[in-house]
Each structure stands twice: as C-alpha cells, then as structure tokens.
Amino acid sequence: MSLFITEAYAQTASGGGSGALGAQLMQYLPLVLIFVVFYFVLIRPQQQQQKQLKASLAALRRGDRVLTAGGIVGVVQRVKDGSNEIEVEIAPNVRVTVLRETISRVLKPGAANDSTPAAKAP
C-alpha cells in the first residue's frame, strides 16, 4: 500500500471494473439534458416562428398592415411580382419601397391603435 494513494482509489482511477464506464456516461448526462432543454425551449420555437414569418411574407397582398424592422407601421399598397420590393404607405400619400426581409411582422387588422369612434344613433 502506497503512502499517498489508497487501494480503492487506485482501482477506480485505473479503470478496473465496469463502473468506470457508467461513471463517465453519468458525467456527460447533465450536458445532454441541458442541450435537450435548450432545444425544446429556445431553438425549436424560434425555428417555428421563422417559418411562420416566411410564410406570411410570401402571402403578402395589398391592404395588409406590416411592421418594418425600423419600427414603421404601414399598409401594403403594391407587391411587385418576382421582386423583393414591396410598396408600403406609411402616411396619407406617402409611399416607400421596402424589401421583404425588412418586414419583421405582419399585423392583424385590429392589432394597431386605430381606434375608430362608433357611430352614434341620432
């Protein structure tokens, strides 16, 4: 018996036995679990969001309200076929041309703060 190393420690350090392989696998198990959690909590939902945005950008048509990456809300006036350019009206008689990639969201019709007063009965 050595002065500094006990016999039990020497046997486990040298890999003597089938328990060493199980211990090595258990060492990597937390890393695998963390990756699985990250995949289902962060990566997969983001991929689904990107697919949904890509589908909504492909289906843009006149009258849709969009939000650009710069924070400008506008209404689509013209979609050029075979091109990435879209003409968006951001104010009355003010139209700008934006690229599809700069549109960050397609807004639903009632999503913006367009409050129209209800018609009052006489």
Layout of SSEs?
Blueprint: H1 7-13, H2 19-58, E1 65-68, E2 73-79, E3 85-91, E4 94-99, E5 103-107
Question: Care to describe what's here?
Answer:
It contains two helices and five strands. The mean pLDDT is 82. Strand 2 and strand 3 form a beta hairpin. By secondary structure, it is α+β, with helices and mostly antiparallel strands. Helix content is 39%, strand content 24%.
Parts with pLDDT < 50 across at least 5 consecutive residues: none
Structural Rg: 30 Å
Strand proportion = 15-25%
- Roughly what is the average pLDDT, rounded to an integer? 82
Tell me the distance between the termini.
105 Å
Based on DSSP secondary structure assignment, what is the total number of beta strands?
A: 5
Question: How helical, in percent, are the residues?
Answer: 25-40%
How would you spell out the order of helices and strands?
HHEEEEE
Q: Given the C-alpha coordinates, what overall shape results?
A: rod-shaped
Separate helix tally: 2
The biggest sheet, with number of strands, parallel, antiparallel or mixed sense and barrel status, is: 5 strands, antiparallel
Total individual domains: 2
Helix/strand structural class: alpha+beta
The neighbouring-strand order within the major sheet is 4-3-2-1-5
